[in-house]
């Protein structure tokens, strides 16, 4: 079950063939290597088109979102494997 | 050349998308719920939850009694809408004749695509592979010479199946198939047909078309054709879609409400949403309908035609309030409120001779521009301000602990 977090994070992105793919995320001073993007989707909030990603580091599942107007990332939720 | 129509139905779509987004949900009973708290209803459940009797539309409380270990996930429309659009785009790779029937269903006329893709089986295999690879979702495919039989076929082999019903199969099937299984025949019509001893597809086919036409009008002739397994309606791609005939919104409250002020605020909030949708597609309507469901599930709905075509949320609200006052029983607790506007027309401009029409139009346009840019209800009427309204409306479905 996804636990609600709603905290700002940092993300390292790979831009390739017109697609932005998160590779690493930094949360609570720890880097997580993203092994796989499980699902990506978009959500319109006013003029802003938010980019949602469900990603995994092979163990935990993270729901992250990119806000293009402020160029910021947020971790919305996490499903911890432990 | 015989028509070949496919009906593609995503299996447990919302639940499958959630399982794809969070793999820890895979293989587990998942219930995607809509509404507030446990007062909402099941939108979709995963196949793991279905043996327990969890079906779409039943109250969440009842669903969790049937399957206490199910995982409840709040509905996330933007996620499903996005995935649905991407899946529909996959269909367009195989034919331009794609009719989007709902968020998780579509008809494809592939008659003209066979030369490119050699066989129907090849098209179906490729579509299934594409969807599974991209989104981890499985689908059931039905094939037939028309939409009616294709839809019927897709329900025969679920999940992740494929079935075909051709015209020659109809005589064998029709005696076994109940009328309620045909797309377009709902519980009301099934009951009505039952009164005339028409319970199967074969009964429909054998009933005299004139008798059916006499009882049901133009629908009666269509019903007779359905009994014969015939459906002349074309697969309508999106560029042939008709404009909406009505637009509406409803909300089920987190707790029953009897306070008239609160109900009025909800009515305004719903009316503003309807008005905004109408303005987005440049439409106006001439009839406002209000629905109220009391705590004992008694539902009353009343509509009223008005003199002018409107799309201003506040005008919808004023009209809706008059209608609601005519039948609302103040001492009873309300569970749900619904607002809809019908008799819609596109692009009509009807200035009001007695009100400052231009000023109101300019104001609406300015408010729409702000809300387009910064999100819905950034600018709103004062009646919609305050924590209280947010608590009623914006309280999301919380996971059950």
Verbal overview:
The complex is a heterodimer of chains A (82) and B (401). Chain A has 82 residues and is an all-beta fold. Chain A has one domain. A seven-stranded antiparallel β-sheet of chain A has the order 3-2-1-7-6-5-4, with no helix packed on it. In chain A, 22% of the residues are buried. The termini of chain B are far apart. Chain B is 40% helix and 21% strand. The C terminus of chain B is likely disordered. In chain B, the strands form three sheets. In chain B, strands 5-6-1-7-8 form a five-stranded mixed β-sheet. In chain B, strands 9, 10, 11, 12 and 13 form a five-stranded antiparallel β-sheet that branches. Chain B contains 15 helices and 13 strands. Chain B is of the alpha+beta class and 401 residues long. In chain B, helix 3 runs antiparallel to helix 5. Chain B has three domains: 165 residues, Alpha-Beta Plaits (2-Layer Sandwich), CATH 3.30.70.270; 59 residues, 5' to 3' exonuclease, C-terminal subdomain (DNA polymerase, domain 1), CATH 1.10.150.20; 148 residues, DNA polymerase, Y-family, little finger domain (Dna Ligase, domain 1). The radius of gyration of chain B is 24 Å and the shape is globular. The interface between A and B is medium-sized, with 19 and 21 residues.
* Structural domain tally of chain A: 1
Most extensive chain interface and residues per partner? A-B, 19 and 21 residues
Ranges of chain B where pLDDT stays below 50 over 5 or more residues in a row are 394-401
Give the radius of gyration of chain A: 12 Å
Give a short account of the largest sheet of chain B: 5 strands, mixed
Q: Span between N and C termini of chain B?
A: 58 Å
Structural class of chain B: alpha+beta
Residue ranges of chain A: pLDDT <50 for 5 or more in a row?
A: none
The CATH homologous superfamily of the largest domain in chain B is called Reverse transcriptase/Diguanylate cyclase domain
Mean pLDDT of chain B: 88
Strand order of the largest sheet of chain B: 5-6-1-7-8
Helical/strand content category of chain A: mainly beta
